[in-house]
Amino acid sequence: MDAGSIRQAYLDYFRERGHVRIARANLVPREDPTTLFTGSGMQPLIPYLLGSPHPDGTRLVDSQPCFRAEDIDEVGDARHTTMFEMLGNWSLGDYFKSEQLPWLFNFLTEVLELDPTRLYVSAFSGSPRWEIPRDDEAIEIWTELFSKAGVSAEVVDLGTAEEAARSGIGEGRIILYDESQCWWSRSGPPSSMPVGEPGGIDSEVFYLFPQLAHDPAFGAHCHPHCDCGRFVEIGNSVFMQYRRTEGGFEPLPQPNVDFGGGLERLAMASIDADDVFEIDLLKSVTAAIDSMLPAGSSGDRRAKRIIADHARAVVFLALDGVEPSNNTQGYVMRRFARRAVRQGLLLGIESGLLSALVGPIAASYQSAYPDLAERAGYITEVLEREESLFRRTLARGVRELPKLAGPLLTGDVVFTLFDTYGFPPELSVEEAQSTGLPVEEGWRARYDQLMAEQRERSRTAAAGMFKGGLADQSEATTRLHTATHLLYKALRLVLGDHVVQRGSNITPERLRFDFSHPAKMTPEEVAEVERIVNENIARDWPMNISQMSPDEAFAEGALGAFGDRYGPVVSVYTAGDPSGEWYSKEICGGPHVHHTGELGRFRIVKEESSSAGVRRIRAVVETVEPVTVSA
Questions:
Q1: At the N or C end, where does the chain have fewer CB atoms within 10 A?
Q2: Which CATH architecture has domain 475-622?
Q3: Rounded to whole angstroms, what are the CA distances from 402 to 314, 396, 425, 434, 438?
């Protein structure tokens, strides 16, 4: 089965078992300040796993694109990707292990028709430290399932992955690991979880590729959690039933099932390919890369894998409203885009790399994500702009390197070239070596230290942002948040309907609003936007809230943040009478004032460039006595 067929079969399978398919979440979390990107299917569901009722009920299923930038250095081998799709099903206090594990086994062996003799599973061995017992229930269920399939299933208790590598699994098929392997939370094992974080023991399913030999570099013996590649995890059922406390763990209000299965890895198993880049979703991209290679060249396999992975990642990031920049998510996107272009140069592809891959990627996801094709023009424009900028940057970096380096290329200079000019570190070293410039021993360690500090600054910049970029829900922040609604509409009235929100960040002191516009605003345009906003503050419009479907909201003229994914019901805030005269109407989940007259005087402090094709306004509201005018 190809990946699209597997995705559809999975969704159908769980819908037949009473699950409601939910919309995918944006790759940029709107209400989770702990991370830059959506890295798992459960991440958007944390409030519901903690006990809040979900509007679609207690049985949910979805397919969620995910992005994990921390895997960037692993990409290029046969298994790792940074962007992937996670198939998920959840029970929010409904069914538990006795339903989940048989359903999963049946799906894998009956629907996907995977060979049960190549399936291996893990279960929790128990933790005296945390007073959490061994998962005998899962062990019993797995033993029975394998037995019915005619497969012997010996239980082997291995503890840690290191102990497993020393001892091997023998004839084992149900492998017991401790909390270092068979525990799941967003923060890792129990000892690293913050107070309040949910988590639980898990039971994973692995697929064996016997055609691969074990690599002893990863230990004397192979086992399911070995990194040599013979075993690939294709699914993980997390039995999320605990919450971290100051002294240990307490039960959640409801025991939950949180399953995640990598679509790409399931596709690997389905076609018995030990290389993820052989599945249809990625093979079509590498084929497009092959078509761009110079005549007679087959290209380096690792370089082609990096390009295929990174191109897919930046296409999805662009779809969800991210644009390359030097801050937070945009910084990561820029790094991925430029890394792909750099690999293309090594293959002899001199121009048009990323834009040429938008079409093949969109075609691969046509049935699941048709908006990729619908927005292909915009995505292509974003990536063409970044690639063109980077190619100019490369030329500039070649000129600046000898000026900055002086007699020695140091780690600090390598970082400066990358941070200021986007010049890849490897290219700095290559250029220095080609000209005979000495390279500092240990440059990489210093460069990595500075990069780590840069990443920490990016994370810190993102921390505290929630509900559309609000720093808090104070009265001052609420007033500025409401002002962004009035600003958004005024920008569209003055500049045109091409203006689309690209991001916002609001503190008690000021608002920052990013929007699409190709040119610097004139002083007259800035003044007119400011006038319109203040006029509608003075009209003291009531801020009305109503609940409706996204389609109904858009049909009524409501605006939404570019790239957002909405559930079946959204909140719409209208400045004015929703069924009569109104000024602005916007889908939003943040806090608002009751009347626009509460805002005060609106003043634009600065209008500037945010990134190519995106402008940024910084503004404040100054408290004055409310003045109203007749409508």
A1: C
A2: 2-Layer Sandwich (3.30)
A3: 32, 11, 14, 12, 11
